[in-house]
Amino acid sequence: MNMENTQAEAGRHYAVVRSRLSDLGPITVLHIGADATTVAVGDGAAPAALRNLAMGARRTAREYFRQSPPGRLEFEIAIEPVEDEITTVVGMLPPASTLYSTDPALRHIALLAGVAESAAMRLELDAMERVFSRLAAVIQGTPAAREGIPEDNEFAATLLILREFMHHLRFPSIVILTV
Q1: Distances in Å between the alpha carbon of 107 and those of 59, 92, 123?
Q2: What pTM, to 2 d.p., does this model score?
Q3: What is the pLDDT of residues 125-177, one digit of tens each?
Q4: pLDDT band at 10 (very low <50, low <70, confident <90, very high)
Q5: Sheet containing 27-32: which strands, arranged edge to edge?
Q6: CATH number of the structural domain 3-177
């Protein structure tokens, strides 16, 4: 997908989220795609800023994970470039912004965290971290079935990107909207 298409996609995700909100406060919309992650921010009908990050679920899994589930060293090596990409958006985030997404993969993570299914699911940082700890247990050898999480590498990459995004950009929660 070229840069122009991902910019348009980020704008579409932002518009969908904004159309569902009655509050016009600042929002950050995260979309973790297959090959890129997009971030759109603003407090109006259109995003004030858009950014494409050179990481996505499939791309991160393909570039860093050789085994399924990923090995501990593979996973640790993937963290730094993900963090590096995420920190590029720090300056564009509006103060007191609420984090949103419409991604089905993030909805799945919220369900794994025990969030009740609804049209707007709030996944708290602590609950997401518990799912991340379950993934860490799988990476260290616990069977994925015992932890109740998928064994696939795109899931692992998605959770890694979400965790690093929320952690480094200090989002206490993310609201996942059904579209």
Answers
A1: 20, 25, 9
A2: 0.94
A3: 999 999 999 999 999 999 999 999 999 999 999 999 999 999 999 999 999 99
A4: confident
A5: 49-53, 37-42, 27-32, 98-101, 173-177, 120-124
A6: 3.30.420.150
For 27, phi then psi, to 5°, come to -130, 155
Tell me 35's DSSP state: S
Dihedral in degrees, nearest 10, Cα atoms 98, 43, 121, 142? -50
Domain residue ranges of the chain, discontinuous segments joined by + = 3-177
SS3 89: helix
**C-alpha to C-alpha distance for 160 and 8, rounded to whole angstroms:** 25
Q: Are 78 and 64 in contact (CB under 8 A)?
A: yes
